[in-house]
Amino acid sequence: MNNACKLILTALLAVTSINAHASDDGLMHTTDVLCFLPDATALGLAIAKHDTEGLKQLGLSTATCLAVNYGLELCIKKERPDGTGCHAFPSTHTAVAFNGSTFLMKRYGWKWGVPAYVVSTFVAWGRVKTDRHDWWDVLGGAAIGAGSAFIFTRPFMGNTDVAICPTTFGDRAYGLTATIQF
Asked: Global pTM?
């Protein structure tokens, strides 16, 4: 496991242990912050890798995620379980978190995706635990976030070298040999 994964997991465990005895209000504020962690990690990683294509993909998936999410909230007007408003379905916090997690998984692999999905799942659980949403709300948000990232994200190839060379096989067979180094 790389250092970034260890850092993310350590931060999540620290927040989780702090909230084990915290009020629902503290948990709600924690999910308010943690929902941005996967996207912030994705942004920072794309910048660090000079991955301009990844930045475009992250921007498109996040914009799509938010547009669909807010559009559905305006149309559906489902009341929150705690009675604080009628923007329960789908969960924006969960959608944003799962958008970043899915981007990290598809673009940079499981070493980045799995810890991000742990954070996103914690956010979804926290939103239900604090009665801001029910399970259908967070499942809808997760589907929108993950779906948006699936549509726009392609795997990062980094410094990939491709060589195609003509080849002969004996006296009568000719072809091409392709070599990919990554």
From this structure: 0.75
